[in-house]
Design brief:
Length: 344
Amino acid sequence: MRSFFDLNSNSEFHLPISFVGCGSATPQTIISNAELGERVDTSDEWIKSRTGIRQRRVIGANESLIDLATHAARNALKMAKWDEKTIDLIILATSTPEDLFGSAPKIQSNLGASNAAAFDLTAACSGFLFALVTASQYLISGSMKRIIVIGADQLSKWVDWDDRSTCVLFGDGAGALAIEASHENKGLIGYSLKSDGNRGGCLNLAHSNIFEDLVNEASHQRGDYLPIRMEGKEVYKFAVKEVPIILGELLEKYNIHSGSIDWLLLHQANQRILDAVAARFSIPSEKVLSNLENYGNTSAATIPLMLDEAVRDKRIKSGDLIACSGFGAGLSWGAALFYWHGSY
Ligand code: ACO
């Protein structure tokens, strides 16, 4: 008899997990490319042609990342028709928590999910995918039944708004997915995760490494971070090389032809990366989900934010096969193949 952990090449095989709800939330403040051009030496034309981004949203004075994440999770709960008391776990994928000890418990409290454990997980722009795979292990093991996975980031806090090579790329947002243990629906087919710390220097939100005198000869390191620093070209080359490899290996493993994919759902970093990956699999542009022109790169939020938009405008339908990949700092990257089963 086949066990859940016996993952051979078989497109009929799937893990006992169903994706049943999604939600998202974005800040009110919109910053257009032209507005950024008033601050740094850039232009709408340069940003649009190099990235596909037209505008991004940033969390302003009356908003917070926890509020956005709570809102996104509530919408996912509503779509899944779950009572909040039935949630077993909440995982918040973020690199920008409001509290370094963890922001997920605050979301748990906001939701009234009194029976849920909650913790943060950090894997930069791959964070949502890493959190999804982490959550799936609890469902596969049978130890939990209902999990909310949230991707939420506020990179606007850590961007140097005077560095044109990075500030034009990022924005803030949140998205969430409700996933449950289910043998009825074909849900998660398979996944793969990778990390390469040797190449981690390409993209950092590093500690400032400033020491202050403490007492006598002792000093201590101040809790402080430097702005985001990125070697854009290296990250670009990494993404267009590794994403097709990891996705291709997954498709091969489960004997799925790229022509059967209903939607290509990639981390929304740059339209040129989306186009390059789609071209490698001959996936037509109408099957490539993209909303980065409106939000920029919202890090851990891009994948659930995009999914939610496409579910709510009825592009993604119940039963659709989604090929998903995230990539980013670490370096880290991953892919997952799943069927969507939410109804909206
Ligand atoms: N406006 C105008 N000119 C600019 C800007 C700007 N905003 N930024 C850079 N330039 C200039 C550069 O100074 C350079 O000028 P030079 O030729 O006189 O030296 C020129 O434009 C070309 O710069 P490049 O860096 O070579 O531009 P490139 O075509 O590589 O595009 C970009 C840059 C958009 C950043 C691209 O490399 C990219 O998308 N990389 C991937 C980024 C990414 O996916 N990050 C994921 C992060 S995920 C996470 O974990 C957070």
